[in-house]
């Protein structure tokens, strides 16, 4: 798709138009009826929505992380489930791009970038492990030119037999392996998770791996580089995901304005108003844009966590406000305010979850007090 001179603005305009056309009419069904937005994701992928920050040589838009976060924000303002699917796809592509397997990058990045190959990011466990919260759930042992991987990951979204996912496993002889697994691999069972409160169209599965063979060609990073890669990537993942929360806030502002058409007189007595939420949204977006340039600077990591936590709290606040402004109409199950409450709840519990963020921040603050 041709870009205007301001390529970022052009990409965002395309994404907004596609989201309005393909997602707005179906957001409720995607959330509650498990309708996977396949056609919308294909169109968004073709427009460059999953690869804003990748170089053109890898099938990307040659923009930056701020643009990727803004794209996820624009999608999530219309449908949080689709925003999370876009994030999952972009995160998987970014992980391969950050890796040290040029042949894999050449073979798969163009297809990951434009969404022809659906992809999930199963890195919660590895990231929580890195934060000292849990042990690795997958183990890897050498087998011929590759590895056999076993274990269970309770949640991976955007995964199906024709898709791939990225995850990490503990190697038998020490160290961490970052790998790409095929959704139809022998030994991989994809169990649909029980009905969810929301995001039912997210193709979320429990993944059971029983000696799944991952050839060397599908290794994203070996034990020498994988931890450094994750340490660089975690800021990228958290900041791009901030777009999900800020898009949900934007959607709540839309619902508050809608309610104002008929209930403005009474609604002005509510403690939370559109202008304060809009100001907080603007400031969080600005902060995302500025921090994006420092996503892999260890000195900025605490600020990234603070921003990610602030956006989760803002999304919860905005979703509650949207319900209160919508009143009894907003209590109907199919009202968007109900969906946004579920979306905001999801954003607060997905890795890095609010409780993880506050724990990590407390640890970092204790560390810097000790160093002072
Ligand atoms: C709808 C949905 C989609 C998700 N998609 C992804 C994804 O695409 N990729 C990804 O990496 N993570 C995904 N997750 C996981 C998410 O990112 C968090 O890691 C997870 O919710 C744990 O968050 P928590 O900090 O609240 O820990 P808690 O929920 O408090 O969990 C504590 C421990 O219990 C484990 N646990 C939680 N649920 C189960 C379960 N059903 N079976 C066994 N153990 C369990 C957790 O892994 C953790 O070790 C998804 C979660 C949900 C609800």
From TrEMBL:
Domain of life of the source: Bacteria
GO molecular function: acyl-CoA dehydrogenase activity; flavin adenine dinucleotide binding
Pfam families (UniProt xref): Acyl-CoA_dh_N
Protein name: Acyl-CoA dehydrogenase/oxidase N-terminal domain-containing protein
Domain Acyl-CoA dehydrogenase/oxidase N-terminal stretches: 11-115
SUPFAM superfamilies recorded: Acyl-CoA dehydrogenase C-terminal domain-like, Acyl-CoA dehydrogenase NM domain-like
InterPro entries, A to Z: Acyl-CoA_Oxase/DH_mid-dom_sf, AcylCo_DH-like_C, AcylCoA_DH/ox_N, AcylCoA_DH/ox_N_sf, AcylCoA_DH/oxidase_NM_dom_sf
């Amino acid at each position: 798709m041709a870009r205007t001179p301001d390529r970022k603005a052009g990409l965002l305009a395309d994404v907004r138009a596609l989201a309005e056309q393909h997602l707005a009419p179906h957001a409720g069904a995607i959330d509650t009826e498990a309708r996977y937005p396949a056609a919308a994701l294909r169109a968004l992928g073709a427009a460059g929505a999953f690869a804003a920050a990748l170089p053109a040589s890898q099938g990307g838009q040659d923009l930056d992380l701020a643009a990727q976060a803004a794209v996820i924000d624009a999608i999530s303002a219309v449908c949080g489930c689709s925003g999370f699917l876009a994030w999952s796809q972009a995160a998987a592509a970014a992980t391969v791009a950050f890796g040290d397997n040029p042949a894999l990058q050449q073979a798969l990045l163009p297809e990951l970038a434009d969404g022809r190959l659906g992809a999930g990011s199963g890195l919660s466990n590895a990231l929580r492990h890195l934060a000292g919260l849990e042990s690795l759930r997958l183990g890897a042992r050498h087998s011929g030119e590759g590895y056999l991987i076993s274990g269970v990951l309770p949640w991976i979204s955007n995964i199906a037999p024709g898709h791939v996912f990225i995850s990490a496993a503990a190697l038998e002889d020490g160290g961490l392996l970052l790998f790409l697994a095929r959704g139809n691999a022998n030994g991989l069972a994809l169990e649909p998770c029980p009905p969810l409160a929301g995001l039912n169209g997210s193709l979320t599965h429990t993944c059971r791996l029983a000696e799944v063979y991952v050839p060397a060609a599908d290794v994203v990073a070996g034990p020498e580089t994988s931890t450094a890669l994750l340490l660089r990537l975690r800021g990228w993942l958290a900041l791009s995901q901030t777009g999900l929360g800020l898009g949900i806030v934007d959607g709540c502002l839309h619902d508050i304005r809608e309610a104002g058409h008929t209930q403005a007189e009474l609604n002005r007595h509510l403690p939370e108003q559109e202008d304060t939420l809009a100001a907080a949204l603007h400031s969080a977006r600005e902060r995302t844009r500025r921090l994006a340039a420092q996503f892999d600077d260890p000195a900025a990591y605490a600020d990234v966590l603070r921003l990610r936590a602030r956006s989760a709290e803002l999304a919860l606040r905005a979703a509650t406000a949207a319900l209160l402004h919508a009143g009894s109409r907003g209590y109907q199950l199919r009202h968007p305010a109900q969906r946004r409450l579920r979306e905001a709840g999801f954003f607060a519990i997905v890795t890095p979850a609010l409780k993880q963020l506050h724990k990590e921040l407390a640890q970092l603050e204790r560390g810097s007090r000790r160093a002072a």
